[in-house]
Amino acid sequence: MALSAPQHLTxxxxxxxxxPPGNSRGGQVVFARERPxxxxxxxxxxxxxxxxxxxxxxxxxxxxxWESGKSEHDFGWQVDEQVFITKGCLQVKPLDCPDSAYxxxxxxxxxxxxxxxxxxxxxxYEHRYRFLAYGEGEV
Length: 139
What we know:
Elements: E1 14-18, E2 29-33, H1 38-41, E3 45-47, H2 52-58, E4 64-68, E5 71-76, E6 80-87, E7 89-94, E8 101-104, E9 108-111, E10 116-121, E11 125-132
Antiparallel strand pairs: 1-2, 3-9, 4-11, 5-10, 6-9, 6-11, 7-8, 7-10
């Protein structure tokens, strides 16, 4: 038996599951949309593992440096911030979301103004950062 999505759901990523006959739903087919990744939900723009040339083009070596050991803290962005991770891993869990995003050394991430999250750092971590004016440095 071939299953097809209702017309208004075509073109979206779906999880399709058939409930066996005899179940309280009587063999209905259930469609559920997958939750978009945290990056998409909160407009976190990411370039994974950028090239040395891209880093030089952006001038990341001139950006301010921030480092930390193992830590966990809440943080809120008052301005757009672009970050280039030079060492370690950063787990970002938005305050009102059960999911997290993970960023690693070599990733370039833009955090939007007014975004709030809990940051988890497991080991030594370092990044370069700069603040951006509205519309500047689109990724």
